[in-house]
Records
---
Amino acid sequence: MMRRRELLSLAVPALLHAQEKARRNGPATIRAVEVIRVEGTRKYEAGDARRQHQVNPLHVYEEHRPAEYRETARPAGEAKATALYLRIGTEEGVEGLYGPIDIEAAIVVYQQLRPFLTGKDALAGETLWDKLHRSNRHSRSSHFMMAISAVDNALWDLRGRYYSTPVYRLLGGPTRKQVEAYGSCLGHSVEPERMRKTAAEYKRQGFRHQKWFLPWGPGDGPAGLQKNVDMARHLREALGNDADMMFDAFMGWDVNYAVQWAKQVEQYRPRWIEEAFHPDKMESFAALRRATSVPVATGEHFYGRWEAMRFLQAGAISVVQADPEWCGGVSELVKVCHIASSYDAQVIPHGHNVHAALHVVAAQSPMTCPLVEYLISKMSSYYWFEKWDPKPVDGKIPLPETPGFGIALDEAKITRRSVATWG
């Protein structure tokens, strides 16, 4: 067995090297916080229009309920493209970049967080998050928390570039070489034959887990309920027994409706029913979970670890879908994962973006974080301005080895770049 002196002889040089590197790198003092607007034009191929609506809370009103959707063909063409990215630069020349970000978050960053961040230590992530959260009475939710999320994610990218390593290594290192993605089929037609064909094709491409969006709710009466039940039957028949299917009701149902649906589709073994109710209605989620064997999921509209904790304590959900673009960034999503693991619940982040979610999931146990969400239609153009597109190959996304999140803008696609300002 190696003696203590021999161990020290190996450890001391490594420690001294790390200390020298830290002295050489020096501090990272925030100098600039900018929202970059990039614009250009992208081409798209001919194909299905993919504008199938999903049920939403307003559909209880007849005048807000869309007509039955029928898929139409879309010719090839061009479209204007624009995106917002948050750039945080330091006095020492290290930068962090994150995006695309929502305009609601960008406005708060520019008007309220930018002055606060200037002069702060970009490496003090926990301190900065806590101070940002304490800096405004409205920070607990909504657009302010979305802005904190954008800043937190950009700072993680900065720290990755500072230490020349991917974010998932800063979070503890990879638990796998690639992360499996579930295919999220928002906008895809749910006409039975089209849906069956699409589901089978995506399974062939490697999407062994698929989420489909239910278009009907209480306002559509018994006929609509039956169509929602039939969707589960058609998908199970198309996917076979060796694939998962999930369903999203986007806050458009009530408890009685959800229980009726769940009881009828239990035989088709959905992996979960997502966001059947508004997140304020925690008791509705708990009642549904007690009433059915179909796992219950929600959380894309959770703003912080505290909401996740309350739902888990109430036994209301099996799957937490906290979104690092909205819940408080990478820093907060990691805390949500730790809380969820103590309840033996899974965290499968909502896929508004892939970058941050991919790195968090990659650094967590596959028991807690088995999947990331990949919105198939949205992501086909979402990263238009970026050189690296986090795209699944055979249903799995390989982990990048580039520093930070690996986000780099493709100058060849940008026709106009500007620094966005508001007020």
---
Amino acid sequence: MKLPRLIIAGTHSGVGKTTLTLGIILALRKKGVNVRAFKTGPDYIDPTYHAEASGKPCGNLDTRLVSEDSILELFKRRAEGADISIIEGVMGLYDGLKDGDEGSTAHLAKILDCPVVLIQDARSMSRSAGAVALGYKDFDKKIDIAGIILNNIGSANHYKYVKSAIESNAGIPVLGYLPKDSN
């Protein structure tokens, strides 16, 4: 499939997936990129934000309710003509139905053969962030974690330590961060 695409996933719910996804979509749109937005799973709130940011209706890709073949068809039909499709995941990357893969963001990434940017909360950790990233990388070798964006970074030094821990231990590039901000 030659449709440019990227999944924004998180280590868990509340990690900042929606904020970062909206920021990426809006930044690309402001640069004149034709972005198509998608949301994983049954969600009716985030897609309204995605539509506002992208200027186009947001597609829904729910692997629990729709077959893999239908997911591919829906994605291809809606992504056609876009410069890139940005897909926001649901919950944590590997959280699916009960203790399985079905319905998870990872399941969708495998169906679409799509790289993943993982959002990781770095609050109150430094070197341990490398262990967390390594766990996500090694948990399912079929998932291509192309990069990590950190959230809740306390300072430039904090970012330097966390970035080093992840890149040297997990071998995943850290693409940037959002500073800690209670608002």
---
Amino acid sequence: ASIASVSRLTLTSLHKESQTAWQINGENNEITPSPQNRIGTTISVKDIFYNIPARRKFLKSTQTEFGHCLQAVKNLALYYPQISFKLIHNQKIIFYFKSSNHNTTNERILEILGNDFFENSSEVNANFEDLNLVGRIIKPTMASALAVSSQSYFFVNGRFVKYKILNHAVKEAYHDVLHLSKQPSVCLFLTLSPQDVDVNVHPAKTEIRFRNSQTVFRFIFKSLVSVLSQPLNNVNLISQN
């Protein structure tokens, strides 16, 4: 709805059990049949801020703004490996992530973050009461060697978020095995009861608040420390260096 109010947006969708696709026009909210014969949803956004020239003046370069769009779609694709995503920009296919037959995040992490990160990271799979944490974290010995080392992806109940407590938990977990100037790369998916998360802290919806932040912090910290302590004496060797 927010994008539809500042652009020429059309959304076309065909459900696998339907014979007809339908399209909604964001300008007039008119819903009409569509000739689309491919199962799935197509979202088209054109002329952003065409109706609010003052806002358009604050847009950065096309490359920069497209980079934000690219990252937003990648964030969605990371959490939904069972769904295929194709991004087209100026009639050019930028990427096409096919749906996973096994519905595993590992396949999608490999596709998006690359083989270097995947081969040099460890898998996380931890549970405590209603808290569940899965994903991959970079091995300390490779954190400074990979170009992806400064990237961190956090998802809470399917939502990509930026939250200081999550970053702090990761930083503390790596405290004894990684130089403080290095930022480890992680891709983590946390699920917990929706009643324990406030998602309305910020309009952008990327900032959240936990009802019991200390419990979440300790859970993530201990889960990562457990994984990082598994390789043969890596902790002691790196701390001595």
